[in-house]
Structure formats: C-alpha cells, structure tokens
Design goal:
Number of domains: 1
Number of helices: 12
Distance between the termini: 27 Å
Shape: elongated
Strand content: under 5%
Largest sheet: none
Length: 264
C-alpha cells in the first residue's frame, strides 16, 4: 500500500511539473486550442458541402469524428514531451531521484488528460458555433466525453512508449503521423464506413477510432435518422468495444513504458 501511495504521489508531482510548463511555454496551448478549431471549421465549411449524410446534418455528424481525431493526434504530445525530456537530460535526473520509476511516465500521461479536457472544451464551444448540438441527456453526454478521454488516455501510453524509443521529438511527429493519419482517416470520422471499398471498409468497421467516434455520436444524439444498422459487432456495441480496446492498450503499453524507462 505504501508503494502504491508513493507512486501516486510522485505521479502527481510529475503531472504538476508538466502542467506548469505551460506558463513558461504558452505556445503549447496553440496546438491544444487552435488546431481543433481549424480542423472543425475546415471540414464543416470547406468539405461539408460535398459530403451528404442521409437523414441528418453533416455538421452534427462531423463533430464526433473531429473530437476523436484530435484527441488521437494529441497523443503525439505525450511522446514528444517525453522525447524532449530525454534529449535535454531531464529523464536522467529523474532516474537519480528516490522516486517511483513508474511515476515519470504515469505523470506524463496524467497531465495530458487535462490537456485533452481543455481541447474537448474548446472543440465543444467551436462545435456549437458551427451548428452542432447535444441532443442526448446530460448523463449520455458526460459518458461520451468520458469514453473519448479514456480512449485518448490509452493512446497516450502508446506514444509514451514510442517517445522512450526515439532520439528526438521530431521523430515522434514523423513516425506518429505515418501511423495515426491512416488510423484516423480510414475510420467512421468524416464519412460513413459504408463509403469505404472492400478491405478498407472491414478495417474501418473494426478500427477503435471508428467505434470511439460512433459511441460519441450515439451518446450525443447525433446519429442520422434512419441510419442503417451496422453489420460489424464493433459498431453495434461501440462503447464496450472502445473501452475493451482502451483496457488492452493500457495493459500492454503501461508496463512496457515503465520497463523501458527503467532500463534506458
């Protein structure tokens, strides 16, 4: 029990250290606040007119996808922050301190949850400006936000592990884009999975980004009227499928990240 309490206390200290960095480098807030707004406006006003959603408004359909996409892209911030600390020698200092080895990575991912909360708040405000509305109950909306945050937290553990492997933050941005870009676009983010051909449709149906997006849409009450029932079990039960994926990812990459930090 003492070991657990020490780890939690050390993790909270590291999280506070990461959050205080914003006061010294306020440019960090640009990626958290401005990028989601630009993406939402871009798709709502530039591409929205060319994509038809039968039985519903594309702008309402769009917002759940933008939420999921930006939170997944935001996970690269976790890896870049860790890679930067390694490059500057901060991690070596942490290893020399009498603290839990798990706390450094856990504190990093915990602080990024708060960044994601801020990002979601900004996107929610921007969504209301472009005509999006929450049509479900308050409880359903809170559940939608929780599912998105849990999924983003899981992905941040993946990027934390990658951040411990690469030599610089620039490599995170390059390698992360190669994986996250297709993961977020071959999904039910900006167009229904029925629009994808053959193997791409199968990938999109079982892609957890698709299910995180669909879970948000259903809970926000943004599903188009008369939308066909999906064939894939994953899209029939998007909340459960997304949370199972999140649990698996954390169970795999949290121990890998801590082990990698200890051995580096």
């Amino acid at each position: 029990m003492n070991q657990i309490m020490m780890t939690l206390g050390d993790s909270a200290t590291i999280a506070r250290r990461n959050l205080r960095k914003v006061t010294r480098v306020p440019e960090i807030l640009i990626g958290i606040t401005i990028s989601p707004i630009l993406m939402l406006v871009l798709f709502a006003y530039v591409f929205g007119g060319s994509i038809e959603i039968e039985g519903g408004s594309y702008r309402e359909y769009l917002v759940g996808g933008v939420f999921a996409m930006n939170l997944v892209f935001g996970s690269m911030f976790t890896g870049a922050g860790i890679a930067e600390d390694i490059q500057k020698g901060v991690m070596d200092r942490f290893r020399s301190l009498p603290m839990s080895q798990a706390a450094v990575v856990a504190g990093r991912t915990a602080s990024d949850v708060l960044y994601n909360v801020l990002s979601l708040g900004v996107m929610t405000f921007a969504g209301y400006l472009v005509g999006w509305r929450i049509n479900g109950s308050v409880l359903d909306a809170a559940t939608a936000f929780a599912v998105l945050l849990v999924f983003a937290y899981a992905i941040s553990w993946v990027m934390a592990y990658v951040g411990l492997l690469v030599p610089s933050p620039e490599v995170i941005n390059q390698s992360g884009m190669m994986v996250i870009f297709p993961l977020t676009f071959i999904a039910d983010t900006f167009a229904p999975v029925e629009n994808f051909p053959g193997p791409l449709k199968a990938f999109a149906e079982w892609n957890p980004v698709s299910t995180a997006t669909r879970a948000a849409r259903e809970l926000f009450g943004n599903m188009p009227a008369g939308a066909p029932e999906p064939d894939a079990w994953s899209l029939q039960h998007p909340v459960a499928y997304t949370l199972v994926w999140a649990a698996i990812i954390i169970a795999v990459f949290a121990p890998l990240s801590v082990r990698r930090f200890s051995r580096r």
